[in-house]
Amino acid sequence: MKNNKRGSVPFYSFYTIKELPETDRPREKLLRFGVENLTDSELLAILLRTGVKGKNAIELAREVLNCFNGLSGLLNASIKELLSFKGLGKTKAITLIAALELGKRVTFFRDFSTKITSPENVFKILLAKQIGLKVEVFGLLTLNSKGKLISIHEVTKGGSNFTSITPKEVFYPAIKDMAEAVILFHNHPSGDPTPSKEDIEITQKLLECASFLDIEILDHVILGKDSFFSFKKEGLL
After folding, report:
1. Residue 162: its pLDDT value, please?
2. Euclidean distance between CA atoms 50 and 60, whole angstroms
3. Do the bridges between strand 216-223 and strand 149-157 make them parallel or antiparallel, or are there none, so unpaired?
4. 3-state secondary structure labels for all residues of the chain
5. How many CA atoms lie within 13 A of 59 on its CB side?
6. Each residue of 58-88: pLDDT tens digit?
């Protein structure tokens, strides 16, 4: 065991994972205390398995989290961005991207049998997918006659606003799903969910078109960083 010159508290930079006390090793800690008692960096270290020269897996995990501004940023990192991080080879990057995608899918599938009864439901379902996005994404949730979720569709991605969206683009997924109703959504990367003039105008345009197709627009939810704006809740629908 290497000497810890800073006292009795272990400093990870002085240890490999195997040299840490068993109670501080992520895998052993998970088995002994439960997965909920591990920090984000410890959970990430388990996926990374090993560190790199001069850094153990926990240190590497901390650096990854710092680089991507925590889990929220990591959730939307691309494989290219992960590969560009010094210390993450192809195997580690692929492992992380696969694990993060599984987490997103579990969140979505868990809510697919849930009846959508409020904008809070929508915010909860979309949060994992939308959090940390640097561009705007416009889409819709399609619902059956019982108000249960059929599918989530992204219509456009990356635009500064959505005034150029055509009703055909928006309602094609709903018609394909044989949906009785839809809930529109988009995010504001700024974090402020307050609707713009363009947001209100496009919503009104889509409402008019929906009536001809016999598809009900139940709401338009704008996602911010920690909050949302509901057109229905605010009396704009």
Report:
1. 61
2. 9
3. unpaired
4. CCCCCCCCCCCHHHCCHHHCCHHHCHHHHHHHHCHHHCCHHHHHHHHHCCCECCECHHHHHHHHHHHCCHHHHHHCCCHHHHHCCCCCCHHHHHHHHHHHHHHHHHHHHHHCCCECCCHHHHHHHHHHHHCCCCCCEEEEEEECCCCEEEEEEEEEECCCCCCCCCHHHHHHHHHHCCCCEEEEEEECCCCCCCCCHHHHHHHHHHHHHHHHHCCEEEEEEEECCCCEEECCCCCCC
5. 17
6. 999 999 999 998 887 888 788 999 999 988 9
* Residue 156, phi then psi, degrees to nearest 5: -140, 155
Structure tokens, 204: 């009104």
At which residue do the structure tokens 């197709």 appear? 213
- Cβ-contact 173, 156 below 8 angstroms: no
Q: How far apart are CA 135 and CA 6, in angstroms?
A: 45
Q: Is the pTM of this model over 0.85?
A: no
Question: In angstroms, how far is CA 91 from the centroid of its own chain?
Answer: 22
Name the one residue in this structure whose structure tokens are 């599918």. 151
Structure tokens at 41: 């960096």
